[in-house]
Amino acid sequence: RMGVARDYLFGRLSNLNEQFNDLQEKQKVALKVIRSQEEERKRVAREIHDGPAQSLANLVFRVEVSQQLIDQDIEKAKNELDELKKIVRLSVQDVRKIIFDLRPMSLDDLGLIPTLKRYINKFIEQTGIMVDLRVLGNERRLPTSHEVTIFRLVQEALNNIYKHAQASYSRVSLEFTSAQINILVSDDGCGFAPEEIKDDSFGLVSMRERCNLLDGSIDINSNKNEGTRIKISIPVEGGK
User: In terms of pTM, does the model score above 0.90?
Assistant: First the structure.
């Protein structure tokens, strides 16, 4: 009886220890995600401060100058107003870019694939990295949560390629099946060894967390000078 009691107690303590370790691991992941979110907020705040906020402050000054010129030199006032129009156009472009980064409105209107195409075209234009997008299976609309998550996963993967991979080419494949969506993002970059992944790799942590939220899986395969392959599978019961 003592042996049974001892085994029972040790078993319970072992389970509690496993639960405690699991809780600690979840807390670490949660903290990493929170830090990642704060970094993203800082980035957006910087973009607004350095972009639209500065442009609007400049607009106020230029409007005051235009008001003074109207009575003194109408031609100079017209030239100043032309410059104002250019500033307004650039400010609108900056605001639209920030909105697109936060939440692409075209996801709701056009769907996942047209939004990805638009994003990838901009990515190629801004980075010079060629991206080959391929869509397999019967393309269809998905629940909003799935479309947003898949877009963010591809966005984060391409962002990592731009920042770290030193790549010239990337391939993005999306396969629609009846039960799930399979995503493959690969590149011809420098790659990395698994042990080089740091605890503060917010991008990878964020990708894993997004997959977990939809009961998906993610597999990252990379070797030095052999590029990187990211395979993602997300179950989906049906479109909307």
Answer: no
